[in-house]
Specification:
GMP Synthetase, Chain A, domain 3, 43% helix, Sufe protein. Chain: A, alpha+beta, binds FE2/S2 (inorganic) cluster, Arc Repressor Mutant, subunit A
């Protein structure tokens, strides 16, 4: 389980400033329920440009709730100019740190704040519209968000990009694009293409060993990022039987995870005609 600081636990269990705000004149909204996290931030800014009150409504995990709660506390009493300087790092620092896999929650707070201030100054609609092309379809993450997270937080690996933006944490289809963006931002030549799937047929033993390796090194770590997990139950010829655990168990889209992520990665990295089924179904 996640290792949360006392401050995260406190703001999760006793969130401050929850709900909508009467008389709010700046509202910012980011994320979507379909992607698992959403935040709506309400600000009441007086004529002198000082944030008199701030509240939030959120849908998300403990870190999302704690980050949103702290954001509203940090904003009260600040001028609009001061609020503009607030970053996701300030939110995470105030909480005494967040698990690296949950840094995207602090980024969501920063984006909601930007959306609210832009709407207040008549620059944009309250809903944050990210720039660039859509890179990660699973989590609705755009090119501009990824580049910014890399620059502002000094990210150097795709795994870190996933921690800060969620991009890449689902089916894995966008991982190559993420690597290309990262290489571009870091001024590196693109990485060599991944090794192709073995041309000669695998023996049963080789297949079992490779499936177990891909499950442990690639699939399970990705599912665990969102509280899920998977267990290898058996391998019957080219059919891999698995059991879903944690948040994946009973998830309404678990069949998509199995075919579009688990099966797809095994087909790419082990054998192209491998299939995956949930044991007992
Ligand atoms: S498209 Fe990015 S994880 Fe699926």
């Amino acid at each position: 389980m996640w290792d949360y600081t006392d401050k995260v636990r406190d703001h999760f269990l006793h969130p401050r400033n929850v709900g909508s705000l009467d008389g709010a004149n700046a509202v910012g909204e980011v994320g979507s329920l379909a992607c698992g996290d959403a935040l709506k931030l309400f600000l009441k800014i007086n004529d002198a440009g000082v944030i008199e009150d701030a509240t939030f409504q959120t849908f998300g995990c403990a870190s999302a709730i704690a980050s949103s709660s702290v954001l509203t506390e940090l904003l009260k009493g600040k001028t609009v100019a001061e609020a503009r300087k607030l970053t996701n790092k300030d939110i995470a620092d105030y909480l005494g740190g967040l698990p690296k896999e949950k840094m995207h929650c602090s980024v969501m707070g920063q984006e909601a704040l930007e959306a609210a201030l832009a709407a207040y100054q008549g620059e944009a609609a309250p809903r944050h519209e990210p720039e660039g092309e859509l890179v990660c379809k699973c989590f609705g993450v755009y090119d501009g968000q990824i580049r910014r997270a890399i620059r502002e937080n000094g990210l150097t690996s795709v795994e870190e990009v996933t921690d800060f933006t969620k991009a890449g944490g689902g089916c894995g289809d966008c991982l190559e694009k993420l690597q290309a963006i990262l290489d571009e931002e870091l001024g590196k030549a693109p990485a060599a293409a991944p090794e192709p799937v073995a041309a000669k047929p695998l023996t049963n033993l080789e297949r079992m060993r490779r499936v177990a390796q891909v499950m442990d090194e690639e699939i399970r770590p990705n599912l665990k990022k969102d509280g899920g997990d998977i267990e290898l139950v058996d391998i019957d010829g080219k059919t891999v039987l698995v059991a879903l655990r944690g948040a994946c168990k009973g998830c309404p889209v678990s069949n998509v995870t199995l075919t579009d992520f688990v099966q797809k990665r095994l087909q790419e990295l082990v054998e192209p005609d491998i299939t995956v089924r949930e044991a007992g179904k």
